[in-house]
Amino acid sequence: MAEVILHIYDITNSGSAKTNNTIVQINKIFKDGIGLGGIFHSAVQVYGDEEWSFGFCEQGTGVFSCPSSKNPMYTHREHIVLGKTNFPIFKVNQILRELSREWPGSSYDLLSKNCNHFCDEFCERLGVPKLPAWVNRFANAGDAAMEVAGNTALRLRQAKTEIVSASKVAYRFLMGLNSNSADTPESPSNSNRGSPRFQAAWFKNLISVGNKPSNSELENQGENTLQQQQ
């Protein structure tokens, strides 16, 4: 059995002292002050003095190691003992080889596949508890927000497509009525069919009942319109 230790760092590799200081202050307020979380890098130590983590690179695996609590890119904050793994060292090395193949550096994503997600996966395979929720809360919240925004945009595009399609169907229907009216010899009843009032009544009847108006309805409508024209 071996202890599994989580090392947590403040992310201070922005290249700007002002930005780095701002991140440290955010972490102090949101983690130390109210316990919500912050912007952190994490790594897992098991068997030996090396810690393992994940980062971006253009080619090859993104899994890497360095001396525990001494990653030169970040500022070490604290460490947490997550538990003990029952796996022997050769099994742990096998897990690391598998993760190295499954986590290429080009797949790194700040919100959905970062170092904290890697440590979660590593700990799960080691059979110990995952990271405390506050370690990756900001990234998870951002990822959820992006997913909601994407789904909302998709629904809006679908609704727009449906509205346009329905408008085209209605337009073709009304144009068909006008075409039929133009092709039929003029009579009091036939000329009335092309009137907007009659088209609206027919269209309303078609929607509410599902059938074309009867002959009696056509005749009544024609007589009413003829009287009005006279």
TrEMBL record:
Listed Gene3D superfamilies: PPPDE domains
Record domain PPPDE: where: 2-150
UniProtKB keywords: Hydrolase, Protease
GO molecular function terms noted in the UniProt entry: peptidase activity
GO BP annotations, alphabetical order: proteolysis
Source superkingdom: Eukaryota
Pfam families: Peptidase_C97
PANTHER family xrefs: DESUMOYLATING ISOPEPTIDASE, OS06G0107000 PROTEIN
Homology family: Belongs to the DeSI family.
Protein's UniProt name: PPPDE domain-containing protein
